[in-house]
Known about the structure:
Elements: H1 2-30, H2 32-55, H3 62-73, E1 77-82, H4 90-97, E2 102-105, E3 111-117, E4 122-127, H5 133-176, H6 193-238, H7 244-273, E5 283-285, H8 287-304, E6 308-313, E7 320-322, H9 324-341, E8 345-352, E9 358-364, H10 387-390, H11 398-407, E10 412-417, E11 423-429
Parallel strand pairs: 6-8
Antiparallel strand pairs: 1-4, 2-3, 3-4, 5-7, 8-9, 9-11, 10-11
Bound molecules: adenosine-5'-diphosphate (ADP).
Adenosine-5'-diphosphate binds next to helix 9 and helix 11.
Amino acid sequence: MLKFLVRLYLLIIVTYAGALLLIPDAIVGAFHDRFMAYNLDQTRGIQSLIVRQFEKAPPAQWPAVERELAAAFDPLQVQLLRMDSAHLKPGERARLEHGQHVVRMADWGYYQVIMAPLDKTWVVRLTSPPDPLDINVLSWGVTVLIGAALLGCLLLWVWPHWRDLERLKETARRLGRGEMSERTQISPRSNIGELAGVFDTMADELERQVRQQRELLDAVSHELRTPLTRLDFGLVLLFDEVPPASRKRLLELVGHVRELDELVLELLSYSRLQNAEQVRERVEVSLLELVDSVLGGFAEELDSREIQWEVRADDALPRFVLDPRLTARAVQNLVRNAMRYCDRRLLVGLALEDDGSCVVRVEDDGIGIPPEERERIFQPFYRLDRSRDRSTGGFGLGLAISRRAIEGQGGTLSVTQSTLGGARFEIRLPPR
Ligand code: ADP
């Protein structure tokens, strides 16, 4: 917005300066005869007064009269000149020979030189010298003040637009973050009231559609879980009744049903996290304890797979206010992924930045994530098409859920390359 204001102001100032330079000359050029006639009329009186002073004295005393008038008219210059040495233009000479006075114009159509004939040989010339420095400075001061007044006027005009556009921008940003009830609240009387109205209508429609989608997803997930649980239960009960040869097949079927149930559960979590307005918990927790409890859940698997894991934390890490359930959920997903994709090493780093934000890094020494895929892996159901992934058995929802859990608290979740060789996921939560 500031850029817009500066550009508009520069445009106005350049136009104003250009107009000051060009327009007066163009107008004086176009109406030259009228300006000349006006100046001749204006200077007739003063010229005849000067000429009369010379006529009162004999020609021999004209130099003395010239000195006397020059002193009286100072800073205007009065000069007695021979017609031959007065550097006259042809038209001027003709006028003087006919006993008429002559005017030369300067900028803005004002006269600068006036000449009048005394006889066939002598002319008297009155010249107004250029303005002194202080007067020049004052004239430019007027121009600068006009420029400042223009800026003031522009600011007065732009300010309400600025405020409303900022409001519109903030509303768009919040809507993007999932705060679907956000509206511009810009008065219809505002100059962008109509635009804001259309924007709010669009937001209403968006909110309605998102709510419908969520309700549909919730309903479908709930409706699916009940028959799935019955199916699981029924299959387990069948175990003893089927011949031993079919038991392996039955167990596979139970596995598929449970996988489906897990997917429905994940979908439900994802759908619930979509509701950004839902009140987040704000609890002061020890980050180290939170990470320890998450890693505790994986201790057995870490040991059995002989993964070397380490937690690195700043000394005397203060407690931090966050939603423990959502944060633990995100860290859990990251640690689970790191375990799946690492070769031997897993590192969790904890730090509190100078600006008060808290950072949790989960790194591994695995295959990593190619730079062009680093944004896409956060999309739901997105899995990298790599042979190793197939054996890992996820649904591609883990990172989407983690990102929502963190963004719902106003934080960010991103991925880069780790110095260990694999991926480095970084959770950054702002101070409360
Ligand atoms: P999934 O549950 O299938 O693992 P995620 O959303 O957790 O789904 O991850 C999406 C994809 O991101 C995975 O399929 C995997 O290819 C990639 N990925 C996630 N974490 C890592 C990691 N630590 N190292 C390498 N690839 C990873």
